[in-house]
């Protein structure tokens, strides 16, 4: 029996401990906001927070997440109004939208650790998240806007 | 108000009916011929164009729902099509509820996302649906208040009678309006009166996306649903010989393992029934991870398929096509293309006497361009949900053209179309790939076999190695200059595996006295499909690089040369079938010249490249500003000019162009799917290089030509000329012309740290 805490909720799961967290979230827990894009830590679509750090859930075994705090896009904010979510809507970032949960989750860790990220900081933090639709420019601006919203409180 | 030009008596009909519980529902139908005639849509698009319909529902409490008919894959059609209806209805956009429509080609029209057609084909019907509904509401109000209808005005879903000071919402008249016959003549707004269109309206699904709501096919869930995965042959030209499922079957959670034949013997394939492998291995189980693990335990023997035959449906009856069995490699493909390019080819267009012009030329410039197969790499891999019994079928997932897949399903499932329900989810990208519904058919057959609802999931590897790629292309361009450096002849001979890309009637056809276009193709077992601006995405790279080089040889500015040629095409066009408007083409070049400060000294620090192209009835031009950092080219800024007629949603349109530019840079620099003995050499993003965050431009400035022309394509047209502009900038940056795509091969390493911060 594995104990998981996902978005502040406790779960007890009887599951193969080698199962990637991604598939536990999607298939077992029913949180499908975390996306599958590559399965090999190359695209960032599956990014979640593990104890506040951005991890690729497709290569993170559920056993590693056991007893830790997992946050997914569904739990990033209670009302969907995290500064990043606000900024994403303000700048209408999404095209197909498939990559965006992962983008936001990567950006959220950056903003938590760095209240005033430079272009370079953003580049570094976001390099692992692919967007085939090519919305990088808006993602970049939205992160800057979110930092501003966050600073203003 | 302008009366609509279409009369409804002959070619179309409107129906209105009472919703259960009161309220007005208006559905709007069109015969396909009328749609094509009205919008200039290429009637050659395969598949069935059925009736067009828009949906409006108004409840007595003034809730207005608009059904979006067309599948959404990121082009923002879920927002832009309902905007058109809301505009003519004179509704309050902020209060409109948008819903994805069901698959119903009779009520909702072609429901096809592709060819940059969504707005083009729905523009007129949606405007008229909105205007008709408004007229009926007005008539209902006039009757109720006993005032002349001419004295009524509307604003934000409310009707006003100024004289008497009365006003009431649309909703209060909805029931009454439903009983009113649809007006014979429909008056749509004057473009200058638009309040909702030509402005920035937010993506109606934006907040669902950023909060991770289930929207996509992969998110679709039904109680008791099983997960299925396929195992396709490891290489193009291979097929299943035998397999042993015993180990896989013993794995936890596994329900069934079997081989599946997709199409029966002699099945007549339509244009979008492309499938690479007809027989697949299938593993079905409880969860994705269990199925993935079990699939690794499959023991399968594969063998060369040899030459095989496909039966293709066609207008003039079916025909047999031989699919060669060779296990192809990129080197052998290139060698074959080179050999073919020297053979006589099919003449596609000829003006004047190009042979003698080339014979008499003072200078001939000849260049050959090559481009590889490209994988679509939609971020959401192919997948589909199916719940199929002997009586009926429910399918749900991401696809671009339900109306093309349904007849196929009907045949292979032996079910009448009315027993097949297809639900369209939001798509995690499409780019043409999801017009090919083989994965739907596979899901349906799997569900029927295991007698359970099933979600078929392709892994990234399955997706990338399956085929349906952008074809492999080559083209040799020749230009003849006379002693005064005038361009006297132009020749393009293009080929490809398995098709060439040549659009013989496009620029510079029409601008040069002596012109020749030829094409040839080499059959292959590597399947291909539409890829964001098919063919154009190669032509705009090759032709626009070539023109740059010709301009240089002529001692001319590249924009000036293009403008001179376009002037010629306008004033003294050569030939008759030039399919572009020289003024609009020149317009985007002039606009981009102005906005980019072309030739201005302050831009000297950039290596600048320009290109323009016409496709999907729209015009696009880009100026790319490149810099070199640590010996690597980066596109720092891009200026884009677009002419796509009326812009429906300004900010979303800008986003689309920004995306096309970024996607174009990525594919131009890195896009490549190569083969070795039939095997795709790239199977995931560690081998298939995608553009990444730090490699996107810092600035993309998008300008639209302002005109009142009916909207034309937008999703695709800005994509192709990016390739040419990048190639031309790269020449400035490196002093070397780049003839082979991708331009950076092998690609530079990414700064990506694939590992998580903490090793695990
Ligand atoms: S799915 Fe995990 S990084 Fe791509
Ligand atoms: S928005 Fe489509 S992949 Fe990023």
From TrEMBL, chain A:
The keyword Oxidoreductase applies. SUPFAM superfamilies: 2Fe-2S ferredoxin-like (SSF54292), CO dehydrogenase ISP C-domain like (SSF47741). It comes from the Bacteria. It comes from Flavihumibacter petaseus NBRC 106054. CDD domains: fer2. This is Putative oxidoreductase iron-sulfur subunit. GO terms for molecular function: 2 iron, 2 sulfur cluster binding; metal ion binding; oxidoreductase activity. Gene3D superfamilies: 3.10.20.30, [2Fe-2S]-binding domain. Keywords: 2Fe-2S, Iron, Iron-sulfur, Metal-binding, Oxidoreductase. Residues 1-76 form the 2Fe-2S ferredoxin-type domain. InterPro entries: 2Fe-2S-bd (IPR002888), 2Fe-2S-bd_dom_sf (IPR036884), 2Fe-2S_ferredoxin-like_sf (IPR036010), 2Fe-2S_ferredoxin-type (IPR001041), 2Fe2S_fd_BS (IPR006058), Beta-grasp_dom_sf (IPR012675), Diverse_Oxidoreductases (IPR051452). It holds the Pfam family Fer2.
From TrEMBL, chain B:
GO terms for molecular function: oxidoreductase activity. InterPro entries: Ald_Oxase/Xan_DH_a/b, AldOxase/xan_DH_MoCoBD1, AldOxase/xan_DH_MoCoBD2, AldOxase/xan_DH_Mopterin-bd_sf, N-heterocyclic_Hydroxylase, OxRdtase_Mopterin-bd_su_IorB, TAT_signal. The chain crosses the membrane at residues 12-31. It comes from the Bacteria. Residues 737-760 are annotated as: Disordered. Keywords: Membrane, Transmembrane, Transmembrane helix. Residues 211-306 form the Aldehyde oxidase/xanthine dehydrogenase a/b hammerhead domain. This is Putative oxidoreductase molybdenum-binding subunit. It comes from Flavihumibacter petaseus NBRC 106054.
